[in-house]
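User: Some background: our group keeps a shared notebook of sequences we're curious about, and every so often someone picks one and asks for a predicted structure to add to the entry. Today it's my turn. The entry only has the sequence so far, pasted here. Could you supply the structure so I can complete it?
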Amino acid sequence: MIKWFNIVAITCAFFLAMSFSIVGEVAASDGNNNSDSINEKYGLPILVLGEALSDAQKDEVRSLLGVDNPDMVQEYIVTGEDLANYIGGDSSSNMYSSAKITRKDPGNGLVIDIVSSENITEVTTEMYANALLTAGIENALVEVASPLKVSGHSALTGIYKAYNVDGESLDKDRMEVANEELEIATDLADEEGMDQAKVSELLTEIKKAISEQNPATKEDIERIVQEQLDALNIELSPEDREMLTNLFEKMRAINIDFGNVQSQLEDIAGDIKSKIEEVTGNTGFWKSVATFFEDLFAGISNLFSTN
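Assistant: Of course. Here's the predicted structure to add to the notebook entry:
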């Protein structure tokens, strides 16, 4: 009997050690980011806080975005005037969602991390990625946060401001069409009842097709939009199809390199948060562990019952 208990104890210890080892490796890779080291090539990360936040809420956002030392970031406030300046929005709008931008070397791709996902209710990481790449932003870690539930739209303006105050002037036409893309994405998810991931997939697949086919006319864009709707088995109203066609026609007219955009989209797979979710969300592995223990204890129960 003592041998059986020894076997159980050793087995349990093995699986627990293995699981902690896996989680520990992910945590180590996530934490080892040299946050106390100044990048002399790109300068300090830029923190852009929504103007409508109270002082206490701003402190909460700083905490959410891992800003422990104010000397380690450049901090700005994004206002309704910025919204009007960068994307032609309403200057009286309240700005809540905030962002921290850390520039990276070419090849790192664009990584989006919504650190308070429960409070960003409409805009997903993929939607941000699509819009920012359309605007011309590449090779950066962009972290988004809000201390209260908001749609997430104002963070986009904050990100634009971060790039413009950092000496890199983004094209206004691209910023405006990127904002329109984000609005359409959230509208489709809301009004059409589409899954947010499905909306992002549709936008990405249209961009890929445009990159491959290099359409020359609006009619070509309309055909590509319909082809991707058919391929993904998505039905939209004529009005929404026209809205998508007009959006991508604007993108075609300002000569966005969709091939480059797509390569950057693929880099999102390297996001450390996604890696953590892949490990902790590996249901096949944990189910096999659970099944092992169920079988093990069932065997022990049978052993006791036979004795």
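Suggested note for the entry: The first strand starts at residue 46 and ends at 50. The two ends are 10 Å apart (CA to CA).
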